[in-house]
Amino acid sequence: MNHSIQFESGLIKVSGIFNYQNKKDHRRFIQHGYETLPMIELASNTSDEEKQSRIKGTKEFYKNVYYREFHGFLLSGDPGVDYTGNERESVKTLRKAIQQTISFLKYNFQLKQEVEHSVTIQSCELYLFPNQIGIFSITIEPDNWSAPAVSDLLLLSRNFNTPVKGAEKKLFHQWISEQLLCGIQLVGDNIQSDAFSGSKFKTYAILNLNESLLDQSYQRDHLLYELGTCSLLDSISKNGHDAPSASYYESIMSDKIAVFNNYTGLALLDSFTVIGQGHFTPLQQNAFTYHNWSRVYFSIYLFNLYMRFNLFKFNAEYAIHPVRYRDQFQEFLNRYNFRHISFNFLPNILFSAMRKALMIDEEIEHFQERLQGLAAQLQEEQEKRQALLLTIISVLSAIDTLDGIMEKLNEVKGFLGINSIVFYFLFAIATLFAIAGLSYFLFPHHFNKFIKKINRWFRK
User: Fold this and answer.
1) Greatest distance between any 2 Cα atoms in the chain
2) pTM score over 0.85
3) DSSP 244
4) I need a labelling partner for 320 at 20 to 30 A (CA). Which of 58, 61, 408, 442 fits?
5) What sign for the dihedral angle of Cα 46, 48, 50, 56?
């Protein structure tokens, strides 16, 4: 049944993480044909007057519907200022029209040869987040909107190593690096983004069909599961070896997003899929509906991908420098750990579902547990240092009075045979070094912070 389904329209985006260098790579992207992403994408026949009205209306919409911390960071470009009076960070977004047809190659075991699957790369967007973390998003279309074509596209496009036909056969991640990212590599032993972003690209699919034309055997949830998990079409209805067990199917679908009767969504670790009727229209037919799914709700997905990447990175690198990553982790949570992003219910539902699918709260809880162990360890080390300090003080107390200390110093001065000015100058320097050493021994983390502040002050 699902093999015969034909979608009326759809939006498919493929996303991945990359690292960039702020000014250098931003210039390269501009030279490569990228432009700043407009506030709202409109049909080509929209008049200038209507464009200005739509832009103004979009800004008002962001202001009235979304919290300033969220829309300023990802949507409006107006992040406001923090408690120090400095402007908050925001994401720089670039876009380039591509309109290029490529062919994925997939081995067909029945034909015993590779089969071509033609797709069109419509455009590429680059979201340049703080800390030199970028997310690319490729808008991609199958050669037709049949369910099998969409299923193949979702499966092949999320695989790093899908072959791309050309004069020289390349893997998909190589093609993206060369054609869209100015040579920035996505996969490799020393590529940070590869180490913490998982083994697949992420797919975002919004699919619209006329369900009234389908017979009673059609079940939206079955199609949603099969496309969302990249399972074989009709595997559930045929109940063969490829079908999920009843318990596994229920565990996956228990978190589906079913707010309205006309569509259902499913957020998973590597995909976000929505299937229904009348919830999505192409840009030329309804710019507002298209903008909601293509820009606004997609930005919610991107934000959660950014959170997931950073939290996984914190957990993976924690052992290298626990105290430093503890401070960075707390600062990161203070800035980005939103519980809600909107005054309306639907964006918050989507946000929570994506957050749960990407296991963001689990990553936070795991890191906090490790921090508790670190706090106990630091407390124990601090107590040992303080005990040693008390021992040193006890030894020094054996010298009864200040006169006794001065007498010892004069004896040392006389033994060395140097004048008083030079001796006490050297003694003062030695005392400062001793105090610094003792401070580092007793409070190493605070001492390092103090040194960094001094270094920053001298650089100014």
Assistant:
1) 107
2) no
3) P
4) 442
5) positive
Of 357, 363, 364, residue with least CA distance to 255: 357
Contact call for residues 302 and 314 (beta carbons, < 8 A): no
Cβ–Cβ < 8 Å for 117, 104: yes
Beta strands 271-276 and 202-208 are parallel
- Token code pair at residue 200: 């697949």
Instruction: For the chain, give every domain's residue range.
Output: 2-368
Q: What tokens appear for 246 in the block?
A: 């009843």
R_g over Cα of the chain = 30
pLDDT tens across the length of the chain (460 residues)? 788 999 999 999 999 999 998 888 999 999 999 999 988 887 777 888 888 888 899 999 999 999 999 999 999 888 777 766 777 889 999 999 999 999 999 888 877 888 899 999 999 999 999 989 999 999 999 999 999 999 999 999 999 999 999 868 899 999 999 999 999 999 988 887 887 777 899 999 999 999 998 988 899 999 999 999 999 999 999 888 889 999 999 999 999 999 999 999 999 999 999 999 999 999 888 888 999 999 999 999 999 999 999 988 888 777 677 777 778 888 888 889 999 999 999 999 999 999 999 999 998 888 888 777 665 555 556 556 665 666 666 655 655 555 566 666 667 667 676 777 777 777 778 777 777 776 666 666 566 666 666 666 665 5
Gap between the Cα atoms of 255 and 267, Å rounded:
8
Could you give the angle at which helices 147-157 and 220-228 cross, rounded to 10 degrees? 30
